[in-house]
Amino acid sequence: MDVQREIDTRGLNCPLPILKAKKALAEMLSGELLRVVATDPGSLRDFQAFARQTGNELVEQVTAGAEFVHILRRR
């Protein structure tokens, strides 16, 4: 998967991973992919809700040990 931007939100709790993703997406072009790495287990449902509310596509969510990776496509 060709990701254009990645942000590291490890160690941050809600709502910071969402706020950082929102800021990053605002600086991206439509169709570009953003990869967010988080350690907050609540980020799984947070990013699902964020995608529904904003119209950005949640392409993939992966749990890798204590990390949660979210791939979003800019609307």
Automatic annotation (TrEMBL):
InterPro entries (UniProt xref):
TusA-like, TusA-like_sf
**Residue ranges of domain UPF0033 in the record:** 7-31
> Which CDD domains does this entry report, sorted A to Z?
SirA_YedF_YeeD
Which N-terminal residues, if any, form the signal peptide?
A: none
In Pfam terms, one family for this protein is: TusA
Family designation: Belongs to the sulfur carrier protein TusA family.
Question: What is the name attached to this protein's record?
Answer: Sulfurtransferase TusA family protein
Q: Which organism is it from?
A: Pelomonas dachongensis
- Give the source lineage, highest ranks first: Bacteria, Pseudomonadati, Pseudomonadota, Betaproteobacteria, Burkholderiales
